[in-house]
Amino acid sequence: MTKQFSLLALAASLALPAAAQQDPKAGKILDAVSAKYTALKSFQASFTQTLENPAAKLKQNLSGDVTVSGQKYHLATNGQEIINDGKTTWTYLKNENEVNITESDPTNQDMSPAQMYTMYKKGYKYTYVKSLKDAGVTSDLIELSPEDRKNDVFKVQIIVGTADHAIHSVKTFKKNGTRTTFTLKNFKPNVPVSATSFAFDKNAHKGVKVVDLR
């Protein structure tokens, strides 16, 4: 079975019906964020994901690195890698030495970290909350509310730098009490990438089990 990151599932939870009237201030900031990232040829960052549910006494941490170029990406942690070249997705499970291969679906946004800075454009309302200091940096907190009341996610909070419009963190709130915080750091714009950056090399994984689900 293919394991999924909660942070990637965030995008799918926000793929909702058309949006209504929005907060102009929040929209202006989100547009600047989107313009910043879409203008880059590529970028790389380390991330930390924290999954919490106080009622269930659950707290899990996950960290890794992600490289993005257009709709292509390579996401890696200690346990697995997800690689997408825009057409094919490889999910490599290190402990099992197994790779699952699926077709890339551009409409299935949960599989693309490249969509996290454009998801606001469809399906939910956004509101400017306040200015704050995040790790000593003046930042803006924006809250998104899905219009589909049946959605498991009822709120998303995004913190971005006021001066550079860089995404600091994305936090989702689910009806079951689960809170997932995805924090970006060590951001590097326009890093060198090639075709091999976004393709799984079977020869580099001796004895790997290939499960082709296409």
From TrEMBL:
Keyword Coiled coil assigned: no
InterPro entries listed in its UniProt record: LolA/LolB/LppX, OM_lipoprot_carrier_LolA-like
Signal peptide: 1-20
Gene3D superfamilies in the record: Lipoprotein localisation LolA/LolB/LppX
Keywords linked to the UniProt accession: Signal
SUPFAM superfamilies found in the cross-reference section: Prokaryotic lipoproteins and lipoprotein localization factors (SSF89392)
PANTHER family (UniProt xref): OUTER-MEMBRANE LIPOPROTEIN CARRIER PROTEIN
Annotated protein name in UniProt: Cell envelope biogenesis protein LolA
Record organism: Hymenobacter ginsengisoli
